[in-house]
Write a structure and sequence with these properties.
five-stranded antiparallel sheet, five-stranded mixed sheet
């Protein structure tokens, strides 16, 4: 596979604004010269995730993940290195080129090909909806539901023809192979030329960057399932995707709030009503993974689910999901807003159709706290002890002891029982195991994952500095081999660098080797998780801030150590000779050893003088600092 040219690759890296990239996923706040946020890779209440915009790197002091901003994009969006580079290229408007004559990068890989296929199919469905007689019925359906053309365009809505073989013929004419189409998720597995979607209103599903990854389809007929979605694939995971997140993200970031509706039409209706920070899960219950995605940008979730029993049950589960993932939660009370009307609308889509966009916009202004909603639901249980126990999962889901204590007071007041009694019942449930909590499980996981720290000697600091700045390795290897290092961790880093150096220089890619020091590929080769965490942590702490000086001081100390070892060996040999039986016969050998010792003594004096003048500055200070971290 061809590589990017060094010039274009470095141009893209230079153009990256690390803060902009990371803030696509979480909020950052500047404190004490660093940018901090809640880590997207593990659950935490206090920010331990930090970004260095100058080095274009990140590190979490909690879970120890870290690396370059490119590796951050790879980790967050599950992309390969070339795919992440392409995303950054497009994001910051800097083109990428191949080494084979400057050809601009083409889309590579199955995921890119599938996304491009879905984009083309979405455009075709959209054209059919707006411009053909076959799509006329679905278009009129949308208009009659109060959805205007601008929203139809915004959501790129479409229509899949009733002829199940049409799509296969159409794509075959575009030179898509039969094998590729069979793996696309657009066709029946049993009948490869029969389209999965037919005679349905089509809702394109995109990732947060607006890349087409799947479809939802609504039947306007009475027979068959009303809604179907694309099957899960490498490109699309239903439980990790939120409908319209790409369209809602800017408003979610601005307000730190998000509205969670139940389905496609509800989301579209709310956007029509001006509530543009609205999203929905994809035909399933709201998942922990979806909550974690929203937590990157939002602080509060407003639930606007159906007013029927199924919708209320879904709201109950969504509340617990929000709370255990650190999101505040409230429920939109459309019942109270429309209680004077003859008819209570079931969902946002029905509000838009029957009362218009202004009524829909006003209806979301009235909400109730999630704890009040849960207490209302619990009252269906006859015995107060059962009703109180119904609320224990909600207590479990809260991520603050202060919040938990406050809610216990609210529960006690609601059921007119003693606060102490509620607390004792709750504790007893936890102790007996009948109410095993997410919190206790999390604490156990944290205990199990406590890792033994890596001790930092000067050899490891030296190799760590070279590991994150591998352009320095050629100088280090010119004077030392792996056997010269006494610390096993330092030897491990040296061997990884040596293997990669040989691979890259053998193919004439020295420049590629020098550039890639910012991390991810070298770190991927490092099997020792503790050692990898140590390097990332020290880099984040600034222990490798002056790598050239670290290299100079470290190599000086290495030379002194090696000479001192050699001097001890010489003295030992001289002692053996002095105790020998035939001293006369060993005089020539003794003379050679003494001459070598004189040379080593002189060289040690010279090197130690250099070290005294330099104070072993970087290595000594950083070794002490690293040892205290």
């Amino acid at each position: 596979m061809a590589r990017f040219t060094e010039a274009s690759k470095e141009a893209v890296i230079d153009s990256i604004d690390a803060l902009v990239v990371v803030e696509d996923h979480l909020r950052l706040e500047k404190k004490s010269g660093r940018y901090w946020g809640l880590c997207p890779f593990h659950h935490e209440k206090t920010p331990s995730f930090t970004v260095d915009p100058e080095k274009k790197s990140y590190y979490c002091f909690g879970c120890h993940k870290g690396g370059s901003i490119v590796s951050f994009v790879m980790e967050m969006d599950k992309l390969s290195f070339p795919e992440a580079m392409e995303v950054m290229s497009k994001r910051f408007g800097v083109p990428l080129y191949y080494e084979n004559g400057g050809i601009p990068q083409k889309k590579e890989g199955k995921i890119d090909e599938l996304s491009e296929l879905y984009r083309r199919v979405a455009a075709s469905f959209h054209h059919i909806l707006l411009n053909t007689n076959e799509g006329k019925k679905s278009k009129e359906y949308l208009l009659n539901r109060g959805i205007d053309l601008s929203i139809i365009e915004k959501f790129n809505l479409g229509f899949a023809p009733a002829d199940r073989s049409w799509l296969y013929r159409f794509l075959s004419e575009k030179r898509f192979s039969a094998d590729f189409l069979a793996s696309s998720g657009l066709f029946s597995r049993r009948y490869p030329q029969s389209a999965f979607f037919s005679n349905r209103l089509i809702f394109p599903i995109a990732d947060k960057n607006g890349r087409n990854i799947a479809f939802g389809g609504r039947s306007l007929e009475t027979e068959g399932p009303k809604y179907i979605n694309s099957p899960d694939s490498d490109l699309f995971k239903k439980g990790r995707t939120l409908f319209a997140l790409d369209l809602a993200l800017s408003e979610i970031k601005r307000t730190k709030e998000v509205y969670l509706a139940e389905g496609y039409m509800d989301v579209i209706a709310l956007h029509q009503g001006g509530i543009t920070n609205t999203i929905a899960p994809l035909g399933t219950a709201f998942t922990d993974e979806q909550a974690k995605i929203l937590k990157r940008w939002a602080e509060k979730v407003y639930l606007m689910l159906d007013n029927d029993e199924a919708g209320q049950n879904a709201a109950q589960k969504a509340i617990l999901c929000c709370r255990r993932n650190g999101l505040d939660c409230a429920i939109i009370d459309t019942f109270s807003f429309f209680k004077e009307k003859k008819e209570i609308p079931k969902d946002p889509a029905e509000i838009l159709q029957k009362f218009g966009p202004e009524a829909l916009k006003n209806s979301v202004k009235k909400c109730i706290l999630d704890v009040d909603f849960m207490i209302f639901r619990s009252r269906a249980l006859k015995e107060s002890s059962q009703a109180v126990a119904f609320l224990f999962p909600y207590l479990d889901a809260l991520d603050s002891e202060v919040a938990r204590d406050s809610v216990i007071g609210t529960i006690a007041d609601a059921f007119r029982v003693e606060r102490r009694a509620v607390w004792e019942d709750y504790k007893r449930k936890k102790t007996t195991g009948s109410g095993r909590t997410a919190i206790s499980a999390m604490e156990q996981v944290e205990k199990q994952t406590t890792e033994k720290p890596v001790r930092a000697g000067y050899e490891l600091l030296l190799l760590g500095a070279v590991f994150v700045n591998p352009g320095l390795f050629s100088e280090l290897r010119s004077g030392f081999s792996p056997e010269d290092f006494e610390e096993s961790t330092a030897r491990e880093l040296y061997i990884i660098l040596e293997e990669w150096f040989r691979e890259t220089t053998a193919s004439g890619e020295q420049d590629h080797f020098k550039w890639y020091g910012s991390s991810s590929e070298l770190l991927d080769r490092l099997q020792d998780g503790n050692l990898r965490d140590f390097i990332l942590r020290q880099e984040a702490l600034g222990s490798f801030a002056n790598p050239a000086k670290l290299l100079e001081d470290g190599m000086l100390r290495m030379k002194i150590k090696i000479l001192e070892k050699k001097r001890r060996e010489l003295i030992r040999e001289l002692r053996n000779i002095s105790h020998g039986d035939s001293l006369h016969n060993q005089e020539p050998q003794q003379a050679d050893l003494l001459a070598e010792k004189v040379y080593i003594d002189a060289e040690l004096t010279r090197l130690k003088s250099l070290g005294a003048n330099a104070g072993y500055g970087s290595v000594k200070a950083n070794t002490q600092r690293a040892g205290n971290k």
